[in-house]
Amino acid sequence: MPFITDSALAELALLFNLLCATLFGGLIGLNRQLHHRPAGLRTHALTALAAALAITVIQQLQPGTADAASRVAQGVLTGIGFIGAGVIVHHERRYRVEGLTTAATIWVSSMLGLACGTGHVLTAAVGLALTLLILVLGNRLEQRLAGRGPNDDVSLTDDDKPN
Protein backbone atom coordinates (compact mmCIF):
# COMPACT_ATOMS: atom_id res chain seq x y z
CA MET A 1 0.00 0.00 0.00
CA PRO A 2 1.72 3.18 -1.15
CA PHE A 3 1.93 6.14 1.17
CA ILE A 4 1.88 9.76 0.15
CA THR A 5 5.38 11.16 0.35
CA ASP A 6 6.32 14.48 1.90
CA SER A 7 7.18 15.72 -1.57
CA ALA A 8 3.73 14.81 -2.88
CA LEU A 9 2.09 16.56 0.09
CA ALA A 10 4.16 19.67 -0.59
CA GLU A 11 3.07 19.64 -4.23
CA LEU A 12 -0.59 19.25 -3.20
CA ALA A 13 -0.24 22.20 -0.81
CA LEU A 14 1.31 24.25 -3.61
CA LEU A 15 -1.56 23.33 -5.93
CA PHE A 16 -4.10 24.22 -3.24
CA ASN A 17 -2.45 27.61 -2.66
CA LEU A 18 -2.44 28.45 -6.38
CA LEU A 19 -6.05 27.33 -6.81
CA CYS A 20 -7.13 29.43 -3.82
CA ALA A 21 -5.32 32.49 -5.18
CA THR A 22 -7.02 32.07 -8.56
CA LEU A 23 -10.44 31.50 -6.99
CA PHE A 24 -10.15 34.44 -4.59
CA GLY A 25 -9.05 36.82 -7.33
CA GLY A 26 -11.77 35.47 -9.59
CA LEU A 27 -14.48 36.11 -7.02
CA ILE A 28 -13.44 39.74 -6.70
CA GLY A 29 -13.26 39.98 -10.48
CA LEU A 30 -16.75 38.52 -10.79
CA ASN A 31 -18.05 41.38 -8.65
CA ARG A 32 -16.30 43.89 -10.92
CA GLN A 33 -17.63 42.17 -14.03
CA LEU A 34 -21.18 42.19 -12.68
CA HIS A 35 -20.78 45.97 -12.25
CA HIS A 36 -19.61 46.24 -15.89
CA ARG A 37 -16.10 47.42 -15.02
CA PRO A 38 -13.17 47.14 -17.45
CA ALA A 39 -11.24 44.67 -15.28
CA GLY A 40 -13.29 41.59 -14.47
CA LEU A 41 -12.99 37.94 -13.58
CA ARG A 42 -10.04 37.07 -15.83
CA THR A 43 -7.95 40.12 -14.95
CA HIS A 44 -8.38 39.66 -11.20
CA ALA A 45 -7.91 35.88 -11.28
CA LEU A 46 -4.75 36.20 -13.38
CA THR A 47 -3.39 38.97 -11.18
CA ALA A 48 -3.84 36.87 -8.04
CA LEU A 49 -2.40 33.77 -9.71
CA ALA A 50 0.63 35.68 -11.04
CA ALA A 51 1.38 37.08 -7.59
CA ALA A 52 1.04 33.63 -6.02
CA LEU A 53 3.31 32.09 -8.66
CA ALA A 54 5.94 34.81 -8.28
CA ILE A 55 6.24 34.41 -4.52
CA THR A 56 6.04 30.59 -4.72
CA VAL A 57 8.82 30.34 -7.29
CA ILE A 58 11.18 32.56 -5.30
CA GLN A 59 10.48 30.54 -2.16
CA GLN A 60 11.35 27.36 -4.02
CA LEU A 61 14.52 28.84 -5.52
CA GLN A 62 15.70 30.45 -2.29
CA PRO A 63 13.91 28.74 0.61
CA GLY A 64 14.03 30.56 3.93
CA THR A 65 15.20 33.83 2.39
CA ALA A 66 12.83 36.54 3.61
CA ASP A 67 14.81 39.25 1.81
CA ALA A 68 14.24 37.67 -1.61
CA ALA A 69 10.53 37.17 -0.90
CA SER A 70 10.26 40.79 0.22
CA ARG A 71 11.82 42.00 -3.03
CA VAL A 72 9.46 39.85 -5.09
CA ALA A 73 6.44 41.18 -3.17
CA GLN A 74 7.61 44.76 -3.75
CA GLY A 75 8.08 44.07 -7.45
CA VAL A 76 4.65 42.47 -7.76
CA LEU A 77 2.94 45.37 -6.02
CA THR A 78 4.76 47.94 -8.13
CA GLY A 79 3.81 46.13 -11.33
CA ILE A 80 0.21 45.79 -10.21
CA GLY A 81 0.12 49.55 -9.68
CA PHE A 82 0.63 50.01 -13.42
CA ILE A 83 -2.23 47.63 -14.21
CA GLY A 84 -4.45 49.47 -11.74
CA ALA A 85 -3.54 52.79 -13.34
CA GLY A 86 -4.87 51.44 -16.61
CA VAL A 87 -8.43 51.27 -15.27
CA ILE A 88 -8.46 54.78 -13.80
CA VAL A 89 -10.01 57.35 -16.13
CA HIS A 90 -9.87 61.10 -15.62
CA HIS A 91 -12.64 63.16 -17.21
CA GLU A 92 -11.33 66.72 -17.45
CA ARG A 93 -14.57 68.28 -18.63
CA ARG A 94 -16.66 66.72 -15.87
CA TYR A 95 -13.95 67.03 -13.19
CA ARG A 96 -14.29 63.37 -12.28
CA VAL A 97 -12.01 60.42 -11.74
CA GLU A 98 -13.44 56.94 -12.26
CA GLY A 99 -12.11 53.45 -11.71
CA LEU A 100 -10.50 53.89 -8.31
CA THR A 101 -12.42 51.03 -6.72
CA THR A 102 -11.52 48.66 -9.54
CA ALA A 103 -7.87 49.70 -9.32
CA ALA A 104 -7.96 49.01 -5.59
CA THR A 105 -9.50 45.58 -6.14
CA ILE A 106 -6.73 44.67 -8.58
CA TRP A 107 -4.21 45.60 -5.89
CA VAL A 108 -6.13 43.61 -3.26
CA SER A 109 -6.26 40.60 -5.61
CA SER A 110 -2.49 40.65 -5.91
CA MET A 111 -2.14 40.83 -2.13
CA LEU A 112 -4.47 37.84 -1.77
CA GLY A 113 -2.32 36.02 -4.31
CA LEU A 114 0.83 36.80 -2.32
CA ALA A 115 -0.85 35.59 0.88
CA CYS A 116 -1.99 32.35 -0.76
CA GLY A 117 1.38 31.84 -2.40
CA THR A 118 3.10 32.00 0.98
CA GLY A 119 0.61 29.53 2.46
CA HIS A 120 -1.46 32.05 4.39
CA VAL A 121 -4.74 30.95 2.83
CA LEU A 122 -6.84 31.68 5.93
CA THR A 123 -5.52 35.25 6.03
CA ALA A 124 -6.33 35.59 2.33
CA ALA A 125 -9.83 34.17 2.90
CA VAL A 126 -10.50 36.77 5.60
CA GLY A 127 -9.16 39.47 3.27
CA LEU A 128 -11.45 38.20 0.51
CA ALA A 129 -14.49 38.22 2.82
CA LEU A 130 -13.75 41.78 3.94
CA THR A 131 -13.18 42.92 0.37
CA LEU A 132 -16.48 41.46 -0.83
CA LEU A 133 -18.26 42.95 2.16
CA ILE A 134 -16.87 46.38 1.31
CA LEU A 135 -17.79 46.00 -2.36
CA VAL A 136 -21.33 44.86 -1.62
CA LEU A 137 -22.18 47.16 1.29
CA GLY A 138 -19.76 50.05 0.84
CA ASN A 139 -21.76 52.08 -1.67
CA ARG A 140 -24.92 51.90 0.44
CA LEU A 141 -23.02 52.91 3.56
CA GLU A 142 -21.34 55.84 1.79
CA GLN A 143 -24.70 57.10 0.55
CA ARG A 144 -26.22 56.84 4.00
CA LEU A 145 -23.29 58.65 5.66
CA ALA A 146 -23.18 61.36 3.00
CA GLY A 147 -26.90 61.98 3.23
CA ARG A 148 -27.09 61.73 -0.55
CA GLY A 149 -26.25 65.42 -0.86
CA PRO A 150 -24.83 67.13 -3.96
CA ASN A 151 -21.13 66.79 -4.69
CA ASP A 152 -18.63 69.64 -4.86
CA ASP A 153 -17.26 70.90 -8.18
CA VAL A 154 -14.55 68.23 -8.21
CA SER A 155 -15.41 64.70 -7.17
CA LEU A 156 -14.04 61.22 -7.06
CA THR A 157 -16.74 58.84 -8.18
CA ASP A 158 -17.33 55.35 -6.94
CA ASP A 159 -17.26 53.08 -9.96
CA ASP A 160 -19.86 50.76 -8.42
CA LYS A 161 -22.73 53.12 -9.11
CA PRO A 162 -25.04 51.98 -11.92
CA ASN A 163 -24.22 53.33 -15.37
TrEMBL record:
InterPro entries, per the entry: MgtC/SapB/SrpB/YhiD_fam (IPR003416), MgtC_SapB_SrpB_YhiD_N (IPR049177)
MgtC/SapB/SrpB/YhiD N-terminal domain residues: 18-143
Membrane topology according to the record: Multi-pass membrane protein
GO cellular component, one term: plasma membrane
Transmembrane segments: 12-31, 43-62, 68-90, 121-138
Entry keywords, A to Z: Cell inner membrane, Cell membrane, Membrane, Transmembrane, Transmembrane helix
UniProt subcellular location: Cell inner membrane; Cell membrane
PANTHER family assigned: MAGNESIUM TRANSPORTER YHID-RELATED, PROTEIN MGTC
Family: Belongs to the MgtC/SapB family.
Protein name: Protein MgtC
Organism expressing this protein natively: Pseudomonas citronellolis
Lineage of origin: Bacteria, Pseudomonadati, Pseudomonadota, Gammaproteobacteria, Pseudomonadales
